[in-house]
Amino acid sequence: MRSLKQAATIFTIAAASLAASALVAPAWADDSSPVGLWKNIDDVTGKPKALIRITESNGALQGQIEKLFRAPTEDQNPKCEKCEGARKDAPVLGLVIMSGLKKDGSEYTGGEILDPDNGKVYKSKLSLADGGKKLNVRGYIGIPMLGRSQTWVRQE
């Protein structure tokens, strides 16, 4: 009888622990912040292009390419041939393409974003959408109306 009570107690503790961890899990995935892993969807083809990891340091966001989705016939380890300065001929995989964005109300502004395909650096802004599951990314020259937008999808 005693071992049956012990088993019931262990089961109760395990079930309570599991329930508590399920309640805490949503706090780990902060959908109110762009920090995390995002899938970049090509705005022309609609196909996944890359996974980008966004991190935050001293209140500024930075985005780095973590994985590329490339056709088997494409170079699997491309270099940023059209980039300038320190990024010239750097591997695209691992490249920091976004930096300096800071929270400004409901958006993140004041930073820049690099397009590794053409080597150009643009001003940028971000905003979360769809409850933090999507990220609207805007790169522009001058004013935000003159630019290009993409939607990235949260992966974690």
UniProtKB/TrEMBL annotation:
Pfam families cross-referenced by the UniProt entry: DUF2147
InterPro entries: DUF2147
Originating organism: Rugamonas apoptosis
Keywords of this entry: Signal
Name of protein: DUF2147 domain-containing protein
DUF2147 domain: residues covered: 36-154
Top-rank lineage group of the source organism: Bacteria
Annotated signal sequence range: 1-29
